[in-house]
Structure formats: structure tokens, C-alpha cells
Design goal:
The complex is a heterodimer.
Chain A (H helix, E strand, L loop, with lengths): L1 H21 L4 E6 L14 H7 L7 E3 L5 E3 L2 E8 L2 E6 L13 H12 L6 H4 L2 E8 L2 E6 L6 H5 L7 H6 L26 E7 L3 E6 L15 E6 L3 H9 L5 E3 L6 H5 L4 E16 L20 H9 L3 H8 L4 E3 L23 H10 L7 E7 L6 H14 L3 E7 L1 H9 L5 E6 L6 H8 L18 H12 L3 H18 L3 E13 L2 E2 L14 E2 L1
Parallel strand pairs in A: 1-10, 1-11, 14-15, 14-16
Antiparallel strand pairs in A: 2-3, 4-5, 5-7, 6-7, 8-9, 9-10, 11-17, 12-16, 12-17, 13-17, 18-19
Helix pairs in contact in A: 9-11, 14-15, 15-16
Chain B lengths: L1 H25 L17 H10 L6 H13 L13 H36 L4 H15 L2 H15 L12 E3 L2 E3 L4 H34 L2 H8 L4 H38 L5 H10 L3 H29 L1 H10 L1
Antiparallel strand pairs in B: 1-2
Classes of the chains: A alpha+beta, B mainly alpha.
Chain lengths: 527, 326
């Protein structure tokens, strides 16, 4: 009997070994239109870089597939007093080089992210101090009450203090000082994947972290990841169709049909969190770029509404976006905190009403105005502006279109050297509050330069301040609704749509497409 | 001889300075680099701080002088986007471009010259007409279209060649080469043909017209009259006289192959300096852009200098002309 047990035991062991060996390597090859800026996670707070780094490093709390907050390096948290949050850290977590993850690393990371050369200020500016309570407990003290602290710090990933100190990477690269930094090409996190090699602009290779604390809870089978940037749309599509890639994004809208009919890949589309809209100069007494002299037609609500109702959003959706957009009534996408479907309706497309409104406002023959537009920032940005110009012309408003590369456009916008413009907005913290603070508070009330037309309303400004510090979720929602309601009623902006995320995925590969366009490798399975 | 060389070198330095100045003043029109250096929600003070630390608030002449001063010390600065030394980025990327360009030049010569000779000697043959009409296609189709067509046929339809990248590379000291691996060689084929096509047709047409010209010359008639073998007349006398202008043009074209590799590199995502330049323009990465332009300008200047010196050595008329003037 004993003998038999031993035999079965040996057999079981042998079976287990074979099973372990037969887990074959699955390499996931994907392309994005650009490259990660740097391996230093704090170098640039740009969407693609932040999402790439979240595969190597981890934050205290992270977003799941549906953009809900879930524990990551922190297992639990509580609010000690309105400006102090206490986080219990996960025990037994190790960085890729074997160092243990402890409270010191959190304090170090926040400090590094706040320092010179780091571009993380929108996440850490409101943190006054990080107090290490014990090796696995930290207190985060905020400068003011912050009801959405978890959202704010979700993109802030934790670096290893010992590693940074040992390699002279305590501070990110300061461009003024002309010296390189170890962290630009190397990384050491706690996350699901480890950095194997990095050739900037050419190829970046990652491999699975077998000691990842969350590995037992996940069901992905990708073992290695290769990122290649491919800038040319046509080449990116060809590389997917020829089977050299498992995934590429963005899939160009003009190629979506070709991808879907190829039989080897499918375009995966879903609404993105970015809202595209038109802004209007409402602060000057005379527009900078218009035929109307001595007054500002855009200060008149009737004119703004006339322009709104002149826009045939369905035409933009079908003709320009080829169906890959969701018309919007708010400057806030569904799935974002504070979104209210009841407010998301649009003013109807009605050229006749538009003409009447213009005549009532004193412009029966319309007027000329310049529309500023980026041409390499959003999906089909320049084409959208061209269609808008055509639609405005139908009601008598002649548009002089100035479409420029983003670096020129944004500089002009921030100077408010603009009369009418197209912009897209996605809040860093996935919350309505920052949309209001960035776009709906005028400069004289401490607003930010992104409010390019200087839109303002005293009540909205007041609400914006209240929203920033209201902890009670229901009360906060009422305030958000009121603020958006006012802006909508006054036609402070003309919302257009949320563009669609568009990924080209090889058949046989399953991924989770998160609405913020983040690609997380631990949701990927390859057949 | 020495004053001639010195004057040529002095001229080259002046050309380099002009290129540097023009490219530098162009950068003020490219846009604000700070837009790409910080996230969209950063404040104005942060932006101002970045701008100050990069010296972007100084007047353009001051920035230019500082730039030249650094270049003279072979210090090209740190890339805004990659946060690494521009010199090391270029050193990484240059082998890819040089391998591609040299192979393209080789293809262009190896096919262009024989095809040119053939179509000159057998003007009315079926092949000559084919070569000529094909060369018309090569001259008139834009490079990116040829690249996309090749990708569509050989990568998407036939799955024979990779559509992008350089394949596996082998590191030989500072030089990364794709010539030693199968995937590297496969990856090289389509970009090299795409880049070579225009030069190939150019060389073919040049050889053909030069050869036709030479074949009508008196000394060829005399050679024929002397009863020399057709072979000797064609390849010993006619071809040799044809090749002098061809060599000159080829030398000059090598510079433009390297410079025009930008388009081919973009289509095939070939990780060379041309692709790096395009990425730098998109991100307004001024240190990378200015260094690239200086590098390309220096290629042109050096090639021109060498060609000029070769002229001096080869062409006795040049020497005589100079001496009679002095």
C-alpha cells in the first residue's frame, strides 16, 4: 500500500513537471504609433507612457478593466481625518531585483515625483507629506480636503528607493543640466512584467514577473511582450494584416473596414474618455480674428447657440469618423466620475433655427471668423474642422480655418490668442471636478489657461471650489450637475463627440480594452 | 594645390555655418517644445521653469551662439524627448541608415549601369524598351507609394518579407549590423529596393545617354575604322569615357540617398537617423533636429569636397586653367 502511494506520488509529480514545462512561451507583439518617452516613469505624464509603466510598476491603488478603483500595493485605506489618509501596504511584495517593497518606497516615490524634472505634478501637487507609520503603513497628508485622492494617485506608480539610490536615479533627468540618468533606460518595479531590453524608438522587450503577488489571481498566458513603435498608419495596418503583430493601435479609421474584412484581424472599437469640443472666445470685447469690429458676437448666447445648432453631428459621425464616435452633450464622457446621462442630450441640428437666432442677434448675413485646429492630435481633427466650416457656411458664418501641428496650436491656445478652436479633454483623475476647474473657471477667478475662450460664470466658479472639497458623494454630484447644467444652458462650449478607441487585434488574441486607452498585458490571452 | 584645398575647406566651413544658422532660425517656427515636455495639465509656472532651464527664453542669436559653442566642443546636448545624449542616439541610429543607403547605392549601380549600357548598345531591342518604360515608372512614382506597394505584395499577400523594422541585429562593437542574420537580410530587401529605385533609373538613363553620345564621337569611329573588335570598342573605349560623369553623379547622389532615406525609413519603420528626425520634428526635439541637419550637411560637404579634390587630381584641364591664371 505504501509503495503504491509513493508511486502515485511520483506520477503526480511527473505530471506536474510536464504540465509546468508545457506552458509554452507566448510572445505578445504590439505596435503603437509612438514610443514610450522614457523608462523613467515620472518623465512624462502622457497617456501611453503612463499605461506602459503600469505594467512594470504598480501604484497603491489601480483601475480595473471597468475603471473602478481596486487595491494594488495598498490592501486597505481609511480616512483618519479630512486631510489624512492611512494606507495599509501589501506585505511580502518584492521589486524585480529582489528588494522588499516597504513604506519608505512610497515616501521616496512621492518626493521624487514632486521634484525637479518630474512631470507628475497633477497627481502629487496636492500631497503635503507622506508619513511612514511603520514598514507597511503610510499616512498621506493632503494640502486640502481631496474627495478623489484615490483617483489622483492611481497613476502614481511606486519606485524602489534602494535601487534609485544605488544607481544615481534619485532625481529624474533635468534637461537643463545636460546629464543622463540610469532610470532613462532601466526600470525596477513590482509589477506583472520586467524590463528585459530597451532600444528607444526601436524595440522594448518585457518578460513576465513569475513572482508577481497578483499572478495566482490572474488568468493571462502572455509570457513576453515586445513593443515596436510604427509611426506610419499604412505600415502599422500592413504589419497587423501580415501577421507580424498581435495588436496595434490606433487602428486608422480609414483602415477599419479592411482590417475587419481581412479574416486575420478585427478592429476593436469602444468609446474613449476624451471629449472633442469647440471653444469660443467670450472674454474679449472684440474678437481677434473676425470681420465683426467693435463687439464680440460670441459674447451673445444667441450666436453661440446658433453655431451649436448649425452642427450636424451625425454627418460628422458618419462622414468623418466613419461611425467611430459617440455624439456628446457634455464635456464629460460616460464612465467618468460625475457623469449624468440626463444631461448628455444635445441641442438639435437645425440650420433654420440657427439662421433665425443669428438674425435676432443682429447678424442676418452672418460674419467671418477664424477657427484654430490641431492637425496631428486627435482622430481626424483637421477633417472635423473642415466639416464644421462647411456647416457654419450654410448659416452664413464664413470660417477661415487654421489647422496646425499640435505644438503650434497648443502654444496659441494657451495664450488665448484665438477666437474659436477645437480641443479634446480627458481629465487626468477621471473625474468631473477637474473638467470644471480646467475649462469652466475664467482666468480672473484663478482659472487655468486651458479655458482658451475665458468662459466664466460666478456660480460655476463657486461650485468648482465646493466640488474640490466636498467629501459627500451625493452632494458632490448635485453640485457637478448644477455646474454642467449652467454651462450647457449658456452654451459655454459646443461639445462634439467622444472619439472611438480603435485597436487592431489579431484573431485569436483576447484583450481588455479599457476606456482610457490603457493596454494592460495581464489581461491578454493568446490562442 | 594647397591654397586650392584650403579655399575649398574654408568654403565648406562657411556652408556648414549657414546650414546651422538657417536650421536654427527655422526652429522658432516649429512650435513650442515645452508643449511636448510636460503633461497637458501642468501649470504655467512649471512650463516657464522648464523653458528657463532650457534657455528658451533667451534671444535667438544668444541661443545660436551657445549652440555653436557647444558643437565646437562636440557637445550636442540632451534630447528633449528621450532624455539621452543626442550623440549616443545618433551613434545608435546611424549604422541602420548607412547600411541601407550603401546597399541601395550598390543596387542602383549594379543594375543601373548594365541596363544603361544594354539599352544604349541595343537601342531597338525589346528589352531596351522595357527598361525605359520601367525606368519611367521608377522616376514618376513617389517613394512612399512604391514602399507601400511592396509591403502589400510581399508582406501582406505573400508573407515572404517583414513589413517593418530591421529584424535581428548583431552588435559589432559600436556598429549594429543586420547583414549577419537571416531576418536582418530579409528586412533589408524591400527598403533597399525602394530607396534604390529612383537612383537606379537615374543612373540607367544617364549611362544610356552618355554612352550614345560617346558612341557618336570621332575616336570611336576611328577605333572602328582601325578594325578593333566591337567588344574592345564598346567596353574599352566607349564605356570608360562614359563612366567619368557617372562616377561624379553617383558620388553626389550618395549624399541624397542618405538624406532621402527619411521617407523610406518612415514607410518601413527602419530605425535609422531619418526616422529619428521625423520623430524629432513631431516632438519639437530641437537638439536632435539641429544635430541631424548638421550631420547631413557635413555628409554633403565632405562628399563635395572629395569630389572637387578628385576633379583636381583627375582632370588636367582644371590644373592648367588655374596655373595660367596665377
Amino acid at each position: 500500500m505504501k509503495k503504491i502511494t509513493r508511486l502515485t506520488g511520483a506520477l503526480a509529480l511527473a505530471a506536474a513537471v510536464t504540465a509546468a514545462v508545457s506552458v509554452e512561451a507566448k510572445t505578445f507583439k504590439f505596435a503603437f504609433q509612438g514610443d514610450v518617452a522614457s523608462m523613467d516613469p515620472y518623465a512624462l505624464a502622457e497617456n501611453f507612457s503612463v499605461s506602459f509603466h503600469s505594467n512594470i510598476h504598480e501604484p497603491l491603488v489601480r483601475y480595473d478593466e471597468n475603471l473602478q478603483i481596486e487595491p494594488a500595493l495598498a490592501v486597505s485605506w481609511e480616512i483618519v481625518n479630512p486631510t489624512t489618509w492611512r494606507f495599509k501596504l501589501r506585505e511580502g511584495v518584492k521589486f524585480h531585483d529582489g528588494n522588499a517593497f516597504e513604506a519608505d518606497d512610497v515616501a521616496f516615490s512621492v518626493k521624487r515625483a514632486q521634484g525637479e524634472g518630474a512631470d507628475m505634478s497633477s497627481y502629487v501637487a496636492g500631497i503635503a507629506d507622506v508619513k511612514v507609520v511603520d514598514a507597511h503603513t503610510v499616512d498621506i497628508v493632503t494640502t486640502a480636503v481631496n474627495p478623489i485622492l484615490l483617483n489622483t494617485i492611481a497613476p502614481l506608480i511606486i519606485m524602489d528607493k534602494q535601487w534609485a539610490e544605488a544607481n544615481g536615479a534619485v532625481e529624474p533627468v533635468d534637461l537643463g543640466k545636460n546629464v543622463e540618468n540610469y532610470a532613462t533606460l532601466h526600470a525596477n518595479g513590482t509589477g506583472a512584467f520586467k524590463l528585459v531590453s530597451r532600444e528607444p524608438g526601436v524595440k522594448t522587450v518585457l518578460t513576465q514577473n513569475k513572482d508577481w503577488w497578483d499572478l495566482p489571481n490572474q488568468t493571462f498566458n502572455v509570457t513576453d511582450v515586445i513593443l515596436t513603435p510604427i509611426a506610419s498608419d499604412a505600415t502599422r495596418t500592413a504589419a497587423l494584416l501580415s501577421g507580424e503583430l498581435d495588436l496595434m493601435f490606433p487602428a486608422p479609421v480609414q483602415d477599419v473596414e479592411r482590417i475587419n474584412s481581412s479574416g486575420v484581424a478585427t478592429a476593436l472599437q469602444g468609446p474613449e474618455l476624451r471629449t472633442i469640443f469647440l471653444g469660443m472666445d467670450q472674454e474679449r470685447d472684440e474678437l481677434l480674428y473676425s470681420s465683426v469690429k467693435g463687439k464680440n458676437p460670441l459674447k451673445d448666447k444667441k450666436v453661440r447657440q446658433a453655431l451649436y445648432q448649425a452642427i450636424d453631428i451625425e454627418a460628422i459621425k458618419t462622414k468623418v469618423m466613419r461611425g467611430a464616435s459617440t455624439p456628446a452633450g457634455l464635456l464629460l464622457a460616460p464612465k467618468l466620475g460625475g457623469f449624468n446621462e440626463a444631461l448628455n442630450g444635445r441641442l438639435a441640428y437645425d440650420p433654420a433655427a440657427s439662421k433665425t437666432l443669428l438674425a435676432e442677434a443682429g447678424y442676418p448675413d452672418g460674419f467671418d471668423i477664424q477657427l484654430d485646429c490641431p492637425n496631428n492630435r486627435y482622430v481626424n481633427d483637421e477633417q472635423i474642422c473642415q466639416v464644421v466650416a462647411g456647416l457654419f457656411a450654410r448659416v452664413g458664418v464664413n470660417v477661415n480655418l487654421l489647422a496646425q501641428p499640435k505644438s503650434k496650436f497648443f502654444a496659441k491656445l494657451k495664450e488665448h490668442d484665438i477666437s474659436m478652436y477645437l480641443l479634446g479633454w480627458i481629465p487626468d483623475d477621471q473625474d468631473a471636478g477637474s473638467v470644471i476647474a480646467h475649462l469652466m473657471v475664467p482666468p480672473e477667478d484663478g482659472g487655468l489657461p486651458w479655458n482658451g475662450g475665458g468662459y466664466g460664470n460666478p456660480r460655476v466658479t463657486e461650485l468648482s471650489r465646493m466640488i474640490t472639497s466636498e467629501i459627500d458623494a451625493a452632494k458632490r454630484q448635485t453640485m457637478i450637475d448644477e455646474a454642467f447644467g449652467i454651462v450647457k444652458d449658456e452654451v459655454g462650449y459646443i461639445p462634439l463627440h467622444q472619439q472611438a478607441l480603435s485597436w487592431g487585434v489579431r484573431n485569436g488574441v483576447t484583450v481588455a480594452q479599457r476606456a482610457d486607452n490603457a493596454l494592460q498585458y495581464w489581461y491578454i490571452n493568446i490562442k | 594645390m594647397i591654397p586650392y584645398i584650403l579655399s575649398r575647406i574654408l568654403q565648406s566651413v562657411l556652408v556648414m555655418l549657414c546650414v546651422a544658422m538657417i536650421s536654427f532660425s527655422m526652429f522658432t517656427f516649429v512650435g513650442d517644445p515645452v508643449t511636448n515636455l510636460v503633461g497637458i495639465q501642468s501649470t504655467d509656472e512649471q512650463r516657464e521653469k522648464v523653458r528657463d532651464s532650457l534657455g528658451l527664453n533667451d534671444p535667438v542669436p544668444v541661443q545660436f551662439t551657445r549652440f555653436i559653442g557647444r558643437v565646437l566642443q562636440l557637445e550636442f546636448g540632451i534630447s528633449y524627448q528621450q532624455k539621452r545624449k543626442v550623440s549616443s542616439i545618433i551613434a545608435e541610429r546611424l549604422p541602420a541608415t548607412l547600411e541601407l543607403s550603401l546597399l541601395s547605392a550598390f543596387i542602383a549601380l549594379a543594375i543601373g549601369i548594365p541596363a544603361g549600357i544594354f539599352s544604349a548598345l541595343h537601342r531597338d531591342s525589346w528589352f531596351s524598351h522595357l527598361f525605359l518604360s520601367l525606368s519611367l515608372v521608377g522616376v514618376s512614382l513617389p517613394t512612399f507609394l512604391i514602399g507601400i506597394l511592396l509591403i502589400f505584395v510581399f508582406a501582406v499577400q505573400l508573407h515572404l518579407l517583414p513589413s517593418f523594422g530591421r529584424g535581428e541585429v548583431v552588435q559589432l562593437g559600436f556598429w549594429s549590423t543586420g547583414l549577419l542574420t537571416v531576418s536582418g537580410l530579409k528586412a533589408l530587401i524591400m527598403p533597399a529596393i525602394t530607396l534604390a529605385l529612383f537612383q537606379m533609373t537615374l543612373i540607367m538613363r544617364l549611362v544610356r545617354s552618355e554612352m550614345l553620345e560617346v558612341l557618336r564621337a570621332d575616336f570611336i569611329k576611328f577605333a572602328r575604322a582601325r578594325g578593333l573588335a566591337t567588344r574592345t570598342v564598346h567596353f574599352g573605349y566607349a564605356l570608360m569615357n562614359t563612366l567619368i560623369p557617372v562616377i561624379t553623379i553617383t558620388g553626389l547622389q550618395l549624399g541624397s540617398i542618405i538624406a532621402f532615406a527619411i521617407i523610406t525609413e518612415t514607410v518601413f519603420q527602419w530605425p535609422g537617423v531619418g526616422l529619428m528626425f521625423i520623430q524629432a520634428i513631431n516632438e519639437v526635439d530641437i537638439p536632435v533636429m539641429s544635430t541631424y541637419l548638421l550631420l547631413i550637411a557635413s555628409f554633403f560637404v565632405i562628399i563635395n569636397l572629395v569630389v572637387d579634390l578628385l576633379y583636381y587630381a583627375v582632370d588636367p584641364r582644371l590644373r592648367v586653367g588655374r596655373e595660367s591664371r596665377t
